[in-house]
Every structure is written in structure tokens, then in C-alpha cells.
From TrEMBL:
Membrane topology of this protein: Peripheral membrane protein
Any one GO cellular component localisation term in the record: plasma membrane
Organism: Catellatospora bangladeshensis
Protein name: ABC transporter ATP-binding protein
PANTHER family: ABC TRANSPORTER ATP-BINDING PROTEIN, ABC TRANSPORTER ATP-BINDING PROTEIN NATA
Leader peptide range in chain numbering: none
Lineage: Bacteria, Bacillati, Actinomycetota, Actinomycetes, Micromonosporales
Domain of life: Bacteria
Claim: Nucleotidyltransferase is one of the keywords in the record: no
Keywords tagged on the record: Antibiotic resistance, ATP-binding, Cell membrane, Membrane, Nucleotide-binding, Translocase, Transport
Length: 302
């Protein structure tokens, strides 16, 4: 393990009764890295992060932050991290300014720092607005500002864009990029694969308490042999003929279009060109979501 890493996790194991939550989890996060921890519900993400953050004791293995064990809880480490939970926990009946000023007092940082962070997340005009009157995106930005008010080196973000509309999500992406560009290490959990692909330098995919793959999103996509989707007009080509011609591909159809999902799209495109079926053709390359589903499966997780 790299002693200079922001996080170094070695063979973490944790059980709850007969349930194995973590079964030998190991990974590293470099300083200044934007790192994603991805997995289905119940995969072990929350338990992993709670151990790394010093909130939960592992049965065995070790989690280090900046070279120091995170368990037992270390006040010096706590001052170097910021945590934004999926559901922001604010003090009741306070305005946005009062909220972040309360966090500033808890961390013993000057009030001016709270005002600066409120401005940094674009909420100065909402300073006198009570939290319950903020939109979902505004509340998430305030939660991130509260997590950053003491200027931590390492920031944990738990599904920061969950439930936000597309515009609010993209605006928050810009904020998260700025947080990382300022030199902070960011650890993100999210169920939005496009978000992880756009923001993260590397991701780890965890399932059943084990890390399945870890690396840059583009590397995971290539390793998983995820498919490319070619979408053609149904009126221009016969789906049955395509199935016979390309048995390794998955061909689906409806009244208006045919979708050919193939790990090798070049012969499919050549065939469609030969048949004059290129009008309004759409080609969708493999994504991190394809790689994720290849690794974790497609069955529903409660």
C-alpha cells in the first residue's frame, strides 16, 4: 500500500450476524483523486465508507487515512475530512446562513469562512431562506458547503445528486469538479453511472462485499467487453435477417426502430451500409453503465 495515499484499505471484513457485509475489500485512493465507489443496494458501499470514516469498527483488516488508522476514531483525522450524507441533516428552523454558521462554530473556524462557502456554492442570495424552503439542489449545495466549511483535504459525498432534476445535477457536477480542482480528494458514491463516468478519475465496483473491478471508467468499459448499440429504422432493414447474419449480436425491434447490440459493431455497420439503411442511423458506444451491469448483473436488488 502507498503510504502517501489519502485512503488505503486492506482486506476489510465485516459481518452482521450471518450476513457478510464486507469480504476482503482492498483499494487505494490517491491524494487529489476523484474516486467513485459504485455498487447495487446492499453491496457494501456504506459499510466500507463508515469504516474508512472512522464511524464503524471492522472485524478485521485496516483502513488508513493519510497513513493513520481510521479506527479507533482519531480527532486529528476528523478535522481533515468532510462528509456529505445522502439525506442532509440540518438544524430545524434555521436559515441557510444560520446553518453554515453553526457548522463553522462546531469546527471553530471564523464566521467569514462560512459566508465565503455560502458564496462559493451560489447560495448568498438564499442566506435568509429557511432550509425547508430551499429546493433539492439548493439543499444539496448547502450540505456540501457545510461539509467544506473547515477546509478538509478529503471529502466524502454520498449520492449528492439523488433526486435532482437534470439542470440541478449538471450544476452540481460543476461544483464537484471545482472542489476537486482546488486540490481536495473526493470520494463519491452514486447510482448514476453517467455521473461517475463524467467525474471520476477511477471507480471501484463493489458487490456482495467484494471489489469486482477498480480502474479508470474507460478501462473498465474495455475490460467488460460492453456492447455498442446500433439503431436503425425498422422500415429499412429486416430484423430476422440481421439475427441470422450476426448471431453473436442481440437484435430487438419495435414498430419504428431496430437495435443491434454487438461487441463488434463494424461488420454490422458495413452490412447496414450495403443495404442502404444508414438514414437516421444512431450509434451509441459502450458506457460505464454497460460495464457495471456486465459485472453486477441485471437482476433487481431490493
Amino acid at each position: 500500500m502507498d503510504a502517501s495515499a489519502a485512503i488505503a484499505v486492506t482486506d476489510l471484513r465485516k459481518t452482521y450476524g450471518t450476513t457478510t457485509a464486507l469480504d476482503g475489500v482492498s483499494f487505494e485512493v490517491g491524494q487529489g483523486e476523484f474516486f467513485g465507489l459504485l455498487g447495487p443496494n446492499g453491496a457494501g458501499k456504506t459499510t466500507t465508507l463508515e469504516i474508512v470514516e472512522g464511524l464503524r469498527r471492522p472485524d478485521s483488516g485496516q483502513a488508513l487515512m493519510f497513513g493513520a488508522p481510521s479506527w479507533p476514531p482519531n480527532p486529528d483525522l476528523m478535522r481533515r475530512i468532510g462528509v456529505q450524507s445522502q439525506t442532509p441533516a440540518f438544524f430545524e428552523r434555521l436559515t441557510a446562513a444560520e446553518q453554515i454558521h453553526a457548522f463553522a462554530k462546531l469546527y471553530r473556524v471564523p464566521a467569514v469562512r462560512a459566508d465565503e462557502m455560502l458564496a462559493a456554492v451560489g447560495l448568498s442570495d438564499k442566506a435568509r431562506t429557511r432550509v425547508e424552503q430551499l429546493s433539492g439542489g439548493q439543499a444539496q449545495r448547502l450540505a456540501i458547503a457545510c461539509a467544506l466549511v473547515h477546509d478538509p483535504q478529503l471529502v466524502f459525498l454520498d449520492e449528492p445528486t439523488a433526486g435532482l432534476d437534470p439542470q440541478a445535477r449538471r450544476n452540481l457536477w460543476d461544483l464537484l469538479r471545482d472542489i476537486n480542482a482546488a486540490g481536495r480528494t473526493v470520494v463519491l458514491t452514486t447510482h448514476y453511472m453517467d455521473e461517475a463516468e463524467a467525474l471520476c478519475h477511477r471507480v471501484a465496483i463493489i458487490d456482495h462485499g467484494r471489489i469486482l473491478e477498480c480502474g479508470p471508467p474507460e478501462t473498465l468499459i474495455q475490460k467488460a467487453d460492453a456492447v455498442t448499440r446500433v439503431i436503425a429504422q425498422a422500415a429499412l432493414v429486416d430484423a430476422g435477417e440481421l439475427r441470422r447474419r450476426f448471431p453473436e449480436a442481440t437484435v430487438t425491434e419495435d414498430d419504428t426502430r431496430i437495435v443491434i447490440a454487438s461487441p463488434d459493431p463494424a461488420p454490422v455497420l458495413a452490412e447496414l451500409a450495403a443495404r442502404g439503411a444508414l438514414r437516421d442511423l444512431v450509434v451509441k458506444g459502450a458506457t460505464l453503465e454497460d460495464a457495471y451491469l456486465t459485472l453486477t448483473g441485471r437482476e433487481y436488488r431490493a
